[in-house]
């Protein structure tokens, strides 16, 4: 159940990120060139941390403690992405906010690395005397 909720959070954050890309540049008004030239690179870059965290959740076996660490890492990563994008494009709209699309995933990758390291540390067995 924890794994499913974490995947739902990551999927929702990924969908929101893609919607913000389309909203910010009025993609529904532009042609096919825009979708290939502007949307595709930004979308792939924004989705990469969510895909990485989802693959860790799905492809590895976890103990309950590790799943809890991954859940909070997923929730934090998703919340950070949603809050920063929402603030940058809906609350404090500015033409220079396109930088957010390229910076947010960097911070999310750092959070993903920390979550993965903490997951590995929680999974270690204590040394036997």
**End-to-end Cα distance:** 36 Å
**Average of the residue pLDDT scores:** 86
What proportion of the residues form beta strands (DSSP E)? under 5%
Number of strands: 0
Number of self-contained structural domains: 1
Count every helix, treating DSSP H or I runs of 4 or more residues as helices.
4
What's the short story on this structure?
Helices cover 81% and strands 0% of the residues.
What does this structure look like?
The structure is a single chain. With 129 residues, the chain is mainly α. Helix content is 81%, strand content 0%. Helix 1 runs antiparallel to helix 2, helix 1 runs parallel beside helix 3 and helix 2 runs parallel beside helix 4.
For the structure shown, list the relevant keywords.
129 residues; mainly alpha; 4 helices; 0% strand; elongated
Write the layout of secondary structure elements.
Elements lengths: L1 H23 L7 H28 L4 H28 L6 H26 L6
């Amino acid at each position: 159940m924890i794994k499913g909720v974490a995947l739902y959070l990551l999927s929702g954050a990924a969908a929101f990120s893609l919607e913000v890309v389309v909203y910010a540049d009025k993609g529904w008004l532009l042609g096919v060139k825009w979708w290939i030239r502007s949307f595709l690179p930004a979308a792939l870059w924004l989705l990469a941390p969510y895909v990485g965290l989802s693959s860790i959740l799905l492809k590895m076996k976890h103990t309950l403690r590790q799943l809890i660490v991954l859940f909070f890492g997923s929730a934090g990563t998703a919340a950070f992405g949603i809050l920063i994008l929402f603030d940058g494009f809906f609350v404090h709209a500015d033409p220079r906010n396109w930088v957010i699309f390229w910076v947010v995933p960097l911070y999310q990758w750092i959070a993903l690395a920390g979550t993965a390291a903490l997951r590995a540390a929680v999974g270690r067995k204590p040394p036997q005397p």
